[in-house]
Structures are given as C-alpha cells and as structure tokens.
Specification:
The chain is mainly beta. The chain is built from two helices and 13 strands.
C-alpha cells in the first residue's frame, strides 16, 4: 500500500531517516480514498516511531512558516497537504550527519497525496504555492512552547530554493520567523540521534 523512498541531497548523499512516502490512491467518479498511515507497514519499513499528537494548519498563498524545531522535546513529523500545494523543506541539524547543514525540499499537494517523514533533529518549514493550503502532520512529541527554536528561512549558507522566481520575493512571515538566527555550522544543535545537545547559550 505504501512506497517508502529515501531522500537524497542535491549532491547525492542520502538523508538518514528522511523519507518520501506515497500511499496508493483509489480514485473513481465519487472522489478518492487512500490510507495515510499504517503502523504495520511503517514498522515493516523500519519506521517504528510513535505518534502522540496530530496538528493541522491553514495558510494562504505566499505564507512561509519556518524553519522550526523543538529543543527539549524534538519532534519527528509526518507531513501531508490535505488541500492546496506547498513546497515543504527539511534541514538536517544533526551534528555528525553526512547531510548536516543540507536541505531537502519537495512539493506536497492534494493531487498526489505524497507525504514527507522528517525525523527528530531537522528544522522544518514550508511555503504556500496555492491560494490556500491545509497542512496536516503527525508528531512524535508534544508541542513544547518553552523549547521552540528556529533557523532563518533565507540564510544564504543554506541556499534554499523556495521555488519562486521573483527578484523581490517577499513571503508572508510571522514576527517570530523574521527573527530566527542564521545557521551556524560550528554550533552543536542535535546529536546524530536527533537529541538536543543543549550547549547553545540561547537555548
């Protein structure tokens, strides 16, 4: 029922634990049906995480949310788009990872119903490409307002291509997302298992 595809960086390195997940969609004149999660099939593929919280958000065209992570209670996320289209991005912040400081981006929409599983130790964000988009994601840890962290969305060191061509590209951001610090290659964020190393003075 599911296809699990390992994600690969632009220079050909596999992101450990990061997966594109495609379920089988059954379409007919009435609409569609698909299974979005199966503990049995995910476990058989080596994805044995436990989800404890489901979140849903709605955003309009041009909104960019991110790049977010949690420090004290790192979250793994299974992300999909219920309606609309987004460009979804994950940045590896795990010290010692072969893809540390690299990002992966993919289109998630309500046509293909592709999902992205982002393990603990990544920053996550998305940009809305449709008039509106409803995003649904399952989390492996509860929301922790005291452990919120982030990376600046347009940090040139990351070089994220947000799939926009306008020379004056100016997404709609929250006040908090405007103030995230830049990525620092010399900072220890998470260990290889996605656990917060907690040696950052501002954490």
């Amino acid at each position: 029922m599911f296809e699990f595809k390992k994600c690969v960086s632009a220079d050909g390195i596999i992101f450990d634990g990061l997966y594109e997940i495609q379920g089988k969609v059954f379409d007919d004149s009435r609409g569609y049906f698909f299974e979005s999660y199966s503990e049995r099939e995910f476990s058989a593929a080596g994805l044995k995480m436990k989800f404890v919280q489901d979140n849903q958000s709605s955003s309009v065209r041009g909104v960019l949310r991110g790049l977010h992570f949690q420090t004290r209670n790192p979250q793994g996320k299974l992300v999909r788009t219920v309606s609309g289209k987004i460009f979804d991005v994950a940045v590896d912040l795990r010290k010692g990872s072969a893809t540390f400081g690299k990002y992966y981006g993919v289109i998630l929409d309500d046509e293909k119903h592709l999902q992205l599983y982002i393990p603990e130790g990544f920053a996550h964000g998305f940009y809305v490409l449709s008039d509106t988009a409803v995003i649904y994601y399952k989390c492996t840890a509860f929301y922790d307002s005291e452990g919120e962290g982030g990376i600046l969305w347009n940090d040139p060191a990351l070089g994220i291509d947000w799939k926009r061509t306008e020379p004056d590209f100016c997404p709609v951001l929250s006040a908090k997302d405007m103030k995230h610090p830049a990525f620092d290659r010399n900072t220890d964020y998470f260990d290889i298992n996605g656990v917060w190393i907690n040696n950052n003075p501002d954490s």
